[in-house]
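USER:
Working in pairs, take the chain set out below, taking as long as you need, and write a paragraph about the fold.
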Amino acid sequence: MAHNVALVLGGGGAAGNAWEIGVIAGLAEAGLDMTEVADLVVGTSAGATAAAQVRSGIPVAELLASVLSPPMQPVGQNPQRPPSLPMATVFERMRAIGAAATSGVDLQRAMGAFGLESDATIGSGAAQRRATVAARLPSPRWPDRPMIVVALDAHTGELTAFDRDSGVDLVDAVTASTALPGLVPTVSINGSRYIDGGVRSSENADLASGYANVVVLSPLGGRSRTPPEAGTDPAGQFEGLRRFPGAALESQVEALRKQGSYVAVITPDADSRAAMGTNQMDPATRIPSASAGFAQGKQEATRVTFV
């Protein structure tokens, strides 16, 4: 294969972003620095923010320290969040859209329509949302090394893989990739509107096709496929969101392996799942998720071996 190592960072809210930074820092602590090794980084939703962070050139130990530091409220900043629909209502609507969809493209178009419909209520928060995303990124510039940020066209449902050659501002690309329908406004880029790339797939690992080695960090760990069974881990918001063939993590990993790629998938262990809790969107989960991810990353390094 022409390329060697791809790092895929999936979505999973504030908890997922922090867990990914923790895992990457733990891997580096154990001698596997993915910020140096990865020839390509693919980021979706919260993973898009993590991708921009790990591609920034800032040592991963510093990124982890930043996550572990309690956030400070800047003087004069308005703490009021942009308006949004109730979170439970949003995820209930998303599950209903998935249940009614007849194909992956149908689901993606319907989710885009939901996002566009919600703009009538929450569209006024677009500028504040962009500023919030910009504040999370170490740099507003695309990195020199290859990185893909995944979003969906809200009108057509089609996947868009933004990179430094797309002519799109990095902040806009990440804002689009994290624009979950109903919770935040769709994002306008060059006359089109975009929604969260996680609507198609939490990981979009198929974009790593052609790489000999693929490491996937999946905060949701496939849990978005079906509601959890009784007696298992408590549900989070993302459980029960429908995935069609080709969009589920398992099918994407299988396809990569059939092409000859070595694929290592890291999902939250028991301690990390407990730290992430049932509200992965809650910023309060960031510190415990990052800590648990760091501990897990140090353990996972022993089983990631490249071909």
In short: The longest helix spans residues 104-122. The first strand starts at residue 3 and ends at 9. Confidence is low (pLDDT under 50) at residues 73-80, 224-234. The two ends are 11 Å apart (CA to CA).
